[in-house]
Amino acid sequence: MTALRISSVVLWALQIGTIIVLVGLARQVGVLHLRLPAKGAGSVEDGPTVGAQFDLPPVISAQGRTIPVLVRDRLSLVTFASPGCSVCVPVLQAVRSLKSAEQGVWFLIAVDGGEGQVLEYTEKYGLPDSVASESLGAIDGPHRPFSVALSSAGVVLASGVPNTLEQLEVLLGVARRENVANSGEINADGSSTGSGTPTGPSVLSSDAS
Asked: If one looks up domain 59-182 in CATH, what number appears?
């Protein structure tokens, strides 16, 4: 009986010790994660070349509106998504969250599929509007999700495959630095050097009409 009690005490001590070690390990992993710098969006070999310039006229949205791709004195961030892409959903949520903090950026969502599929996807995930990805094939990439940042002149500043809000922020940061280095169109903090205003409703504006 005494031996049984001793073995029980030993087992409990081992379990408690294991829990303490796991908690300490989890804490160290968390500290290490906080110290790591944010990683940028994954790079791709195919897709629009940084520095290339495209003539991108307004496109027709899923709801039949005319949506500009490029807006004077703003960066544009176009994010491509697909109905079959599970990673795209949290990325779209990240884009919507980013929009509220980035007043100097024009956001556009491009969805794969026909007119009906694009509209269905738009309504399913609560997007005020979106456009068909085929209408922006010139700047599309081979993966989903895929984001590309452009200057107001249509110059590709950065692109990649984002999975998180942090990666989108890094991509925009790269785009700003590239844009300032090339033309000084947009200040490093995202503010405009001009007073241009959008020529149409943002596809992520909750008050779009």
From this structure: 3.40.30.10
